[in-house]
Records
---
Amino acid sequence: MSAHGNNTSLSSKVLTMHNALQKWNRYVTDEMVRLTPLLARIGVTLEDTQPHTTGERYLAQAVTTTSGKKLILIGRLTDSDTRVIVKVTTDPDGVEEIEKERSARNAMANLPFSYDAFLSPKELRYERWGTGVISVQEFIEHERPFLARPLEEQFALALAAFKKQEGSRAATYEHRRIAHKAFDSRVLSDYQKSLRIFREGIAAALPDNQALVTLLEKSAAFVEARSEDIERYEGFLTHTDFVPHNFRIKGGRMYLLDHSSIRFGNKYEGWARFINFMTLYNPPLAEALVRYVQENRSLNEQTSLAAMRAYRLIELLYFYARTLSQSEGNLLLLNKARIRFWSEVLASLIEGREVSEHLRREYTTARDSLRSDEEKVRQAGLH
Amino acid sequence: MRILIATPLFPPDIGGGSWCSKEAAYRLSPLHDVTVLTYGALPEPAGTAKVISVPRSFLPLRLARYFFTLLHLAIRSDLLYIENGASVEVPTALLSFFWRGDIILHTSDLAAEKKNSGISAWAHQRILERARPVNTPPVRRPEILPFSPPPTAELVLYERSWEQHIAFIESSHYA
C-alpha cells in the first residue's frame, strides 16, 4: 500500500471515530436541550455533571446491536431534592428497551411460579414525549461499592442472587406461555446463531489475526461439544448482565438496575458474565464461584457453566472487535489490549488453566494508562 | 430388584423432591435395575439408572402419557418409589387398580401436599392406603462453601441418613 493509501485509510478511520463521537455528542446536546423544559414541567432538574454521557459511552452505543440509543442522566426532584435517574430516548429501539424494562419489572412481581423477586428502583414518573419516553426512577445510592466489601460477603451476595434467579423455572407448559409473554427467551439454537454472528464479526474486523481465528474455532467447538448441557439448563430466569454496575445493595437487599437484560435462558448465562467479569476485577471471587459449582453441582452443570463462559467471552471479543473501527489513538490501543486480554482468558478457560496474574496486572496497568480522564470519572465507584 | 422411581421433578428441575429422586437413583443403580420416570426434556443422568421423561405439554395430555408410560414400566418392576405431587400421584392412583406391586411414598414436597384437593386429594389418599410412607426422610447433601469450614459432621449425618433410606427402600419389597 502506498503512503498516500495509508494516509487515506488512517484518516478515514479517524474520521469514523470522530464521526461517531461527534454524532453522540450532538445527540446528547440536542436531547438535553429538548429535554430540560419537559423535565422542569414534571419536577426534575438535571445535575451539571452527567458521567453516563461521556467517556466510552458513545462507543457502546456505536457498536451495540442489542440495545437502542438512550440517555441515562442524573437529576433531582425539584420539590424534595431527591436524587433520581432519568432514562430518556426518542430512538425506537431505545423506546422498546425502556418499555421492555418496565414490563419486566412489573411481570416479575406477578410471576405465578416461585420467584423471590429482586427489588427494583421505584419508577417515579413515566412520560411519553412525542415518539419517545422518559422514565424517572429512584436513585439507589451505593452504601459501599460491591468490590469494596470483604470477599466472603461478595461471594455470599453473589451466590444468593444466583440462587434467587434459579428459583424460577419456566418448566410447565402453562408457565412457558406466561413467560414468553413477559420476557424474551433464548434457547440453544439462539446461542448457536449468535455464536456464528460473533465469529463472523470478529473475523471481519480482524482478518489478519490468525491466532484469534484459530482460538475462535477451538472455542466454538468447545461450546458446540457442550450443546446438550446448554440446552438442558434452559428455561431459567436470568439476568444476563449481572455485574456490579447493574445492581446496588442497600439495607441488605439487592436492587437490580437494568431489567432489560432479564430473560429466560440458560441458567449459567448470568453466572458466566459475572465470573468472567471477576476474572479481571476480583479473581479470588471468580475462583470461589467456580469452586462452589464444582463442589456442589452436577458435572452437567459444571459443563454448562464452562460453555456459557466461553460463549460470553466470544461475545465480549465481538464487542471489542467492532469498536476498533470507531477508535483511534489511546482508545484504539486500549481496545486492542482488551482483545488480547480477553482472548487469553478464553484460551485459559478452554485449555483448563488459570489466567496468569502477571497478565492481568499488565492489562490493568495498560488499561488505566490508556483510559481517558472522562472514562475514568465515569468508571469511578461504578463497581 | 427392579425399582421404578416416579417423580414430578428431576434435575435440572429445582424444587420438590428433584434432588432426592436423583440421589436415590444414583445410589440404588449400582445394586439394582433402576428406572426413573419424570417430566421434562433433558433430565440429568443419575448413575447407571435409566431416566425416561415425558414432555411437559397440555395437562391432560401429559398426565395421560405419564400414566401409560408408568403402566408400561411398572409391569416390569418389583417396587415403585414415588415422590409426591399430583402429576405423579394421580397416574399412580390409577395404576393401583391394575398393579399390585409394592409402593413407597416419599412426601418431599410439602407445598404440593398442602395444595391437594379434588382429584389430587383422592389420589393421595388412595396411595396412602397402598404405600409404605417414608417416615424418616434422608437429608440433603450439605453445601461446601469456599470460606466456611468443611461441614464434616453434617456430611456424616447426610451419609448415615442415606444409608438408612436405601435400606428402607430395599426392605420395602416383599418378594
---
Amino acid sequence: MRYLLPFMVQLILIVGGTIQASAGTLSISEDNRTILLELEEVPLSAGISQRGSSIEAELRIEPAQDAQIALISNWPLIRGLEYDVRIRSTSGLRTIPVALPQAVPPTPPSVQRMSPAAEVLPANTLRLYAHFDRPMARGQVVDHVRLIDQEGNAISDALLNLGVEMWSPDQQRLTILFDPGRLKRGVGPNLALGAPLVPGHRFAIEIDADMHDALNRPLGSTFRHWFDVGEADRRALSPSDWTVLLSENTISIVFDRTMDEYSALSMLRLLGGEDGGFFIGSVFQHGVITWPVPADVPLSRLSIVLGPELEDVAGNTICAPFDVTATHGARCEHQIVLPLRDLQNKGKNAR
Amino acid sequence: MRMKPNFTRMLSVSVLTLVLSSHLADAGETPTSAGALEFGPDNTLFVGDTFAGRVFAFDISEVVADQSDYVLGRAETFEGRVIVDDLKGTIGAQVMAPAEQITINDVAVHGETGQIILSARRGLGPDALPVLATVDKGALRIVDMATLDSSVHTLASPVAETSLEFGQRTRSYAITDIDYHEGEIFVAGVSGESFNSTLRRIAFPFSGTPEAETQIEIWHAVHGQWETRAPIIAQTIAELNGVPTLIAVYACTPLVRIPLADLVDGAMIRAEMIAELGYGNSPIDIVPYTNPFDQSQNVLITHTHRAGNQITLSAIAAADPMPVEVPMNFGPDGLVGAPAPVSGVQHMAMIDSNWAVVVQTDPEDSQKIQLRSLLSPFFFDRALHMVEMNWPGSPDPYGYRQYPPLDLQ
C-alpha cells in the first residue's frame, strides 16, 4: 500500500491534565482507509469520529513498516471533512485532528453534450442522455432536471420519477426517461395528459444551475438543450433502410431515423474480423455508428449482428414498434446477422 | 444498384446459453451497492446489488435479535413512536459521513424476530459504498457484510450485449424489487438504455447453473388495442384463491396480476390489468399485511406523490380485468381500494399484523428522515396529522384522554 499523503500535524497529548504539543508525521493511504503514524507505543485502542460527533468508529490497529502504527478504518475518510482520531494507550488519551484536503476542480461541472443531438425528435421519444464532464451526485435528478416548453414553462409529470436514478457506472451519463405512461397509447396517463412532446412545437431539457457534482460543486448556470418535435415514429427497425458507408479504414452505418446511441453501441456489432471475430472500437457520432476496419478486409466477409434489445429513440425494436397492435407483439430474443453486402452501400472503396 | 436484403437468407442465431452466473461468495466479498431487500428462508437476507447487477444472499443469523419486548407504540391512542429520529445522521455518524451523503434505499423486517434491517448508500459519487444496518430496539448498528456467509447470483446480461475489455458493464440497470417464494426469487428491474421488461425467476439456493435463471418478458396490453413492454416497479407474491400469483405495478401505473405458473422461461406475459393507479406519481412498494381485526389478507401500495392504496387480496382475486372502453379520467380507475394516509413514506415494511415500520420525512423538519412505527391497518399516527381529537377540550369519542401521555424510552 502506498502512502502518498504525508503531512505535518500537531499531536495533542493529554496526560494528567498537562497539554503538550509536538510535531509528528501522519500519512493516509491511497484508499483513505489507513492512517499511518509514529507512536511511542502500540495503542490499547483507537477510534475515529467526525469532528463534533460523539459517535466513534473503531480503528483496527496493526504494526506497519519503519516502526509505524497503522490505524485502519472500515470506512474511507471523505475529503473535505474533519475527523478526530483518538488513541488510548497506557500513557493516556491522544486526540489527533485529521482532514484530507478536497481536490476541487478549478471549473464547475458542465454538460458536455446531449444524446441524441438531433434537432428534430419524434413526439414519442422515450429517453435522452445527458453527458457531464465529471461524476455527478446521485439523488438530485428529480429536483434539477425537467422538460420545458418554448415559453420556458416546466411540463409537469413528463419525466419518469423512480426511486432509483439511471446513471452510468461512472455517474457521468444520466438517462432521462420520459414517463412511459404518457407515451403508451391508451394508457390512463396518456389519455388524461397526452404525450409530453407535441409535434410542431419546441421543447428543451433543462438542467438547472443547482445540479451538482459528486464533490458538491454546482453547475452554476442553467443548461438547456432545445429541440423541435416531429411526428411520432412507430415503426419497427428496418435495416433495409440503413445505408453502409465504406471508406478506406472505416465502415459506417447511417440509419433512417434517430437511434438510441447506447442501444446502438451495445447492441450492434460488426462481424468479420480475424478468425471470424468482432471488430472493436465502434463510435457513435452525429447519429452514425462507425467501426475501424482495415482496408484489406473485403465487404464479403462483413456482417452486422443486431442484438434483440436494439432500439431507436422511441423504443421501437427490430421485432416491433414500441406500441404494437394487440396480440401481435412478440418477444424479441434472437440476434440477427445481416451480411453488409445486402444493405445499401456507398463509399469510395468497393471493398 | 441498391440491393434489398433477402431476409429469408438471414441467419438467426439462437439465444446463447446464459453465462454461468451464481457462486458462493468469496470470503469477505461484499456487494457494490445495497438496494432492494427481501427475506428468504433460514435467516437469509437477499440484497439487490444494482451497481454490479447481482443479488446477494446473506446469512444474517448472527445479526438478528429478538425484538418482541420492544414497545412500538400504543394502538389504543393511535400513537406510534420514533424508532430512530435522525436516520441519515445516525447512519452517517457510524460510517463517518455527513447525513447529506447518506441515502436510504430500503427497509425489511425479519419475521421471526421483528428485527429491522435497512439498506443505504454512503456517498454521492461513483465510489459510494453500500451500507447494511440493523435497528435493535432503537439502537442502530452497522453490519459488516464481509463477515457474513453469503452466496451471489449475477443477473444474466442481455443477449448480444457488448462489454468492455474486461467484461465491465457499460449499461445501467436498477433492481426495483426482489420477492421470495418457495425456493425462488423474482427480480424486477429497469434498464437505462433499453425498455427492458424482463422479470427474472431464479432458483435459491443459488446453484451456479445457467438453468437457475429463467427470464420472462412482461407486456402491458392496453384495452385490447395496443401492447407494449412493461418494466415492473413494485411487486409482491400472494395466493389468490389458492393460486400463487404475482401482483405487480408497472412504471406506467397499471396494477396487474399474473399467476406464477404462467411465468415460464421465454414467456411473453400479457398480464391482466385490474387497476390504473393514476399519473404524476410512481409506485414505491407493494406491502402485504394481515388486518388484525378481521384477519383478511391485503396489500398496501405506496406512492411517491399520493396516498396509498389498501386493497384486499380477495378483491384482487375477484376483480375483472379492466374493460376495453375506459372513460377518460384524471385519476385512478379500476380496483383501487381504500386510501391510506402514507404519502411521504419513502419505504415501508410490516413488523407484525399491528405495526409497520416506515422511513419518512420528519413532519416538522423536511431535511430529516425518521424511522417510525405506524399502526396497522389504519397506517395512521395521530401525532403526524392535524386531528380534531388532538386539541384540548375537543370531543374524545375514542377515549384517548383516559390514557397518560405516551412516554417510550
---
Amino acid sequence: MGLGSTHGLRRVAARRDWLSLAPVPLGIRVAGGTLLCALLSCLTAMTLSQAVYGQRVAPITQSFYRRLPPSGQLRNEVIFFVVVHAAWTAAYLAFAMQRRRHRAEVRQAQLGEALRSAELRLLVSQLNPHFLFNALNGLRSLIADDPDRARDAVTQLARTLRYTLASGEDLVSLERELEMVEDYLALESMRLAERLVVEREIEPAARTARVPAMLLQTLVENAIKHGIAELRPGGTLRIGARIEGGELVLRVDNPRPAGRTPAVAEGLGLRNATERLRLLFGTRAALHLDLSRPDRATARVRLPA
Amino acid sequence: MKALVVDDEPLARRELRRLLAAFPAVEVVGEAGDVDEARARIDALSPDVVFLDIQMPGGTGFDLLTQIDHVPRVVFTTAYDQYAVRAFDVNALDYLLKPIEPERLAAALRKVQAGAVVDADGRMEPLEQLFIRDGPRSWFVALREVSLFTAEGNYVRLAWGRERPLLGRSLAALERNLDPRRFFRASRGQILNLDFVEQVEPGSGGRLHVQLRGGQEVEMSRRQARLFRARTTLA
C-alpha cells in the first residue's frame, strides 16, 4: 500500500510539475501528500490487521508497544507510518531534484554550444570572408605605395567590422547605415578601382528613418558581388532612398552579366534580409528583387518610415 | 623561371609582384586582369608558371585553363572561396591563400622547380599537359601518359591510367597540338600513343588490330595501317 500510494503521489507530482515550484509551495504539497499517503497506508494496515488478527495493531508490532495503552499504540502506529513515509518521500525528493538539476545543466551546455556556433555562422555569413581577405590583401599592397591610403583603409575596415559585429541591434538610422555602406564601398574601390562608380540619391528626410542594420549593406554587397564585380568593365551602382506615403523606399540598382540567372535570388543574404523585415514589420515591409531586364538588377525595399 | 600573374585586382597583382621580387630565380614577364587577357599573354609569352586567381569577371581561373592547348604549370590563388579550396584539396592542386605568406610562396615555387627539366638556356621544358574538368574532379593531364584519344561527338574521351576524363574539344582541334612523333592517328575517331603499343596483329582487309598497354584495343583503318607500317619499318 505504501509503495502504491507513494507511486500515485509521484504521478500526481509529475503531472502537476511540483518540482518546478518554489520551496514553500512545494513543501506544502509534499507534506500534505505524504501525510495523506501515510494515513492511507496506516488505515489499510489497520483494516487488514483487524481482518486477520481481530485487532487494529498487528501482534508483531504490538510487541514493540508492550507498555503502552491501546490508544498509545494506535498513535505510535500512525506516527510510525508518517515517519516512514516522510523518510521515503524525502529520499525520493532529493533524488528527483538532483536529476532535474543535472538535466538542466546538460541542456544549458548544449544550448550554449548551439548558440555559439549559430552566432559564429551568422557572423561569418555577415562578415563575407572573401571581401575581408581581399581587402586585407589590397591593404597590404598599399602600405608601401600609398601609406596614407592604407591608413584610411585600416580605419574603414575596422569600422566595417565593428558595425557588423554590433548589428545585433535591430534598427539603426539610415544615416548610420549609409556610413557603413560608404566605408564598405571605399574598400571595394580599392579592389575594383575605376570599375566601380557609385551614384547616390538620398532624400534628406529619409536619413533619419530607422532601418534594420546591415539591410542596405547586404543589398549593396550583392550588387557588387553578383553584378559589377562580374563585369569586366564594371559599372555604376545606384543607391536611392526616399519617403513616399509614410514609407521608406530603398533602391539599389546595378548592371549584371546578361543572360545569367544569378544565384543571388536564392542567396542567404537576401533570405536573411527578407526574414528580418518580416519579423520586424510583418506584412508592412517588402523586399523585391527586379530581374526583369537581363542586364540589370534592382532591389527595392519598402518599410514603414 | 618566367612567371605570369593573373588577377582581376590591380592591387593584388602589385602585391604578388612585390613578393616575387624576393626570388631572383623568378622573372615576372607579364600580368593579366581577366581570362581573355591571360590567354593572350600565355600565347605570347609562354610562361613557365602562372599564378592564377580563381574569381575573375567573365570567367574563372578554371575556365581559362580548359580553353588553352598548352597548359603551363599553375599555382592557384584565392582570398577565400570554400568551393575552390575544396576543389583544390580534393584534386591535389597547388594553391595559395591571399594575403600570401612568403614562406608558402617559397614552398610553392620550390615545388614548381622540383622535377622540372631545364634546358641549356635555363628555360624550363614545357609540361605538355592539358587541364580537364569532369564534374567535380579536375586534373592536369600529362599528354605522354594518355594511351588513347577517342572522339565522342564534339568531345574527346581520354584513356589515362584508370581515368576516362572527357575533354571539351574536338579530336581535330586536339590533334593540331599533339606531337606527331608520339601520337598516331589510328582512324577517323581515334589517336593512339605509340609508346603504349604492345601488340600489333593483322586484321581483315589490310587493317591492323593494335593492343595498347592498359588494355585498350584499337582498330586501325586501312589507310592509316599502311602509313603505320611505313613508319615502323623506317624506324
---
Amino acid sequence: MSLATTESVAEIKARNKQLIDEVLKVYPEKTAKRRAKHLNVHEAGKSDCGVKSNLKSIPGVMTIRGCAYAGSKGVVWGPIKDMIHISHGPVGCGQYSWAARRNYYIGTTGIDTFVTMQFTSDFQEKDIVFGGDKKLAKIIDEIQELFPLNHGITIQSECPIGLIGDDIEAVSKVKSKEYDGKTIVPVRCEGFRGVSQSLGHHIANDAVRDWIFDKISPDAKPAFEATP
Amino acid sequence: MIAQWSGDGSLAELEATPKAKLNVLHCYRSMNYISRHMEEKFGIPWCEYNFFGPSKIAESLRKIASFFDDKIKEGAERVIAKYQPLMDAVIAKYRPRLEGKTVMLFVGGLRPRHVIGAYEDLGMEVVGTGYEFGHNDDYQRTAQHYVKDGTLIYDDVTGYEFERFVEKIQPDLVGSGIKEKYVFQKMGVPFRQMHSWDYSGPYHGYDGFAIFARDMDMAINSPIWKKTKAPWKDAPRPSLMAAE
C-alpha cells in the first residue's frame, strides 16, 4: 500500500511536514520544542538533513539507543576474539548482552577465542561499598589460570565503576607487570557516559590508541614486513 | 589486508594496523576516531567505502583502487566485470517485483544511509530514515549523497513518533531492529531487521546483494500480508446462515 507513487514531491513534503506537526502535538510543550529539532523533511541541495543529533534522549519516551558500554564492549572490543573482555560491574550488563550480536569468528571457543563467552565481575553490594579493585585483581588471576591462551584482557567498565571511583587503570598496570607485560586494557565505557553507543565507540578507540598503539615497543620484531 | 576492525579480529591485528598503507572504513561512525588518529600520527590515509549493492560496490572498488597503481586498478575493473552477470541476474529477477516499493529505515550510525544504494539498485525508494546515534557529519553525508528531496528525517526517533509515521506513510517495508520488528508486523507492515539481518544475511558485498534482494522480496511479497484482515470483518456470506 504505497501512497508515494501517486503524489508529487511537493505534496509529499507538505504531508510529511504536517505529519511532524501532528506527532509533536502529543508532547508537553518543552518536549515538543526539543523533539521538533530532531525531525525534518529533507530539502534537496541542503548540505545536511536539518536535524540536531547526538543529544540527550528525552526521559519517558522510548528511545532505541543503547549506552556507552554497548558501544565499547558490544561493538568495538567484543568481536576481538583472542582477548577476554570482562564486563566489570553488576551482572546484568554482561548477562543481557551475552552473545546478542552476531560476531562470527574462527577459533576454538574457550581455548584460544572467547567471543561467545561471558566474563563478569558480578558486583555485589559489598563491592559497591568497599570497591571492586581487589576483586578485579583476583579475576585477572583466575582468567590467567583458566584460559592461559588468551592474548590479552580488557576491562569494560559498567556504570558503578565510574560512580564509586574504582581505579581499574592501577589494577591493569600492576597486573600487566605481574604477567610479564601482558596487554591489559582498562576501558572507561561506563554506560552513563555520553548519550548513546557513540561515545562508547570513541572511548573504545581511544583505549586502543592509548593501551595498544602507544605500548607497541618500537624495536619489537615486526610480525611482517610492510610493502612500499 | 592485514587487519580487520573488529569482526573476527585479534590483538595481533590491532597491533599490526599502524603498518597499514591505507585504512578503508565501512562503519565511519565507530572507526573514524582511530582512523583520524592514525592519519595524524602515522600518516596513514583513510577513505570511506560502501559495499551495499552493486552500484556502491563498483564505486567503492574504483575509489580504493585509485590509491594504488594501474595493476590494482585493472584488477578492480576485472572484479567488477566478473560479478556484473550475477548482479544483472539478481536485478532482473527481483527488480520487477520490487520496483517503486517504499521503505522507511531506522538503524544505528551508518546503515540509515549506507543501504539506500542497495534498495535503489532494486528500484525501491527510501522515503524516511534516521539514526539512533548518528552525529551531524553522518547527516551531512546522508543529505549530500543519499536521500532524495522530501525524505522524512527523524533523529533518535521515539517509539510513538515512529509508529505514527509508519501508520500515516504506510511504507511497503520498514527496516529497523528487533525491538521494532513486532510492533510493525502487528501493524501489518512488512519488516526486515537491518542490524542482525533477521538472522539471514550477510547483505554486504556481491553475494550479499543476492541474499538482500531475496529477503526484501520475501518480506514484501509474502502473501500473508493480504490475509491480515479479520474474516469476520467481511460481509456475512449466505451459505453460513443456519438452515431453516
